[in-house]
Amino acid sequence: MKAYLIPKPTGIDALTLVERPTPRPGPRQVRVRIKACSLNYRDLMVVRGAYARGPLPENIVPLSDGAGTVVEVGPGVTRVKVGDRVAGCFFQRWYGGSFEPTTNASALGGSIDGVLAEEVVLEEEGVVEFPDHLSFAEAATLPCAALTAWNALIEHGRLTAGETILVQGTGGVSIFALQFARQLGARVIATSSSDAKLARVKSLGADAGVNYKSRVDWDVAATEITAGRGVDQVIEVGGAGTFARSLNAIRVGGKISLIGLLAGAAEINPMPILRKLADVRGIFVGSAQMFEAMNRAIASARLKPAIDRVFPFADAKAAYRHLESGAHFGKIVIELS
Questions:
Q1: Domain boundaries, position 251
Q2: Which residues contact 6 (CB under 8 A, 6 or more apart)?
Q3: In the chain, how many domains are there?
């Protein structure tokens, strides 16, 4: 079977297509024939050697997000059967409960081999069935971006109808957060450097958009939009470069879900957190049980992920370069025949 490896993480050209033996599942494991994968910003960091969560194993298979069909089950498997359509979980050993120090050692495409391959072996509790109305390409967008947004808004944020959230940019996490918030009856303010992208988020249901190039003080703009109150929640993907403005944009007692570091990392002054009585939490994807709860909500609303572009397996490098360009709106998918 074919798989991509990263012999040495020096950039996108390090991706190497190779032939590998077909993997076989052990006890409580399943073999999945991958039909589609999707990219996250983390995958770009991994291939560049810039991922900060420890050294990569040699010749790792990249990507955390994939969906496919179960083609073989190992001894003791009861949760799924051959023929089931499943998506892999970002963390193969976080079914539920608290995030433990050992959980990170089971992260696909970082700590262990990922899913940019024709077939993979995953843990029985590291796969979930996805809604019937979704294609494999659509399901492949869920494991990281969608679940991160769900964890931020629902598990952490306890979002309710009538609240207002602010999403930064138009990447996968932000677009899923927009969709979930609208499903729950919340208002959404989106930021972007592109008026064209802001028009697209409004077509998906955003109530207001702020171009942070022409309105650098987007935090003030968000406060004005909420009649001086401030937003209830911020999906914070920028990091230190945007965190201070996110604190200024929330209401007293508001929540910030800290997800990414797209605008860099730095020391943070805690005083504004105290003044705002802010609830700030780091969000690192989510558990399989959260994934199952999210899928029930997606099925109920028949929600469809926003896919920017689909690339064939042979053009995986082009998919990475499209992600690197920042021109995408929503998710980038790689399909396997």
A1: 146-282
A2: 14, 15, 16, 46, 47, 56, 59, 60, 61, 62
A3: 2
Summarize pLDDT for 183-226 with one digit per residue, the tens: 999 999 999 999 999 999 999 999 999 999 999 999 999 999 99
Structure tokens at 82: 């051959």
User: Distance between CA atoms of 140 and 337, rounded to whole angstroms?
Assistant: 14
**Are residue 126 and residue 47 in the same domain, yes or no?**
yes
From 296, 291, 290, 2, select the one nearest 141 (Cα to Cα): 291
State whether the Cα torsion 124-130-136-141 is positive or negative: negative
Instruction: Please identify which residue in the block is written with the tokens 């109920």.
Output: 300
Q: What is the CATH number of the domain that holds 16?
A: 3.90.180.10
Q: Which strand ranges, in their side-by-side order, compose the sheet holding 231-236?
A: 208-211, 187-192, 164-168, 231-236, 250-258, 279-282
Contacts (Cβ under 8 Å, ≥6 apart) of 29: 73, 74, 77, 121, 122, 123, 124
Residues 6+ apart with CB under 8 A from 69: 32, 33, 35, 83, 84, 85, 86
What are the CA-CA distances from residue 309 to residues 45, 52, 141, 150, 322 (Å)? Answer: 20, 28, 12, 23, 9
The secondary element (H helix, E strand) that includes residue 179 is helix 172-183
pLDDT digits (tens, 9 = 90+) for 132-169: 999 999 999 999 999 999 999 999 999 999 999 999 99
Give residue 191's identity as a one-letter amino acid code.
T
Q: Is the distance from CB of 39 to CB of 114 less than 8 angstroms?
A: no
* Cross-strand pairs, 129: 86
**Residue listed under structure tokens 């679940």:** 147
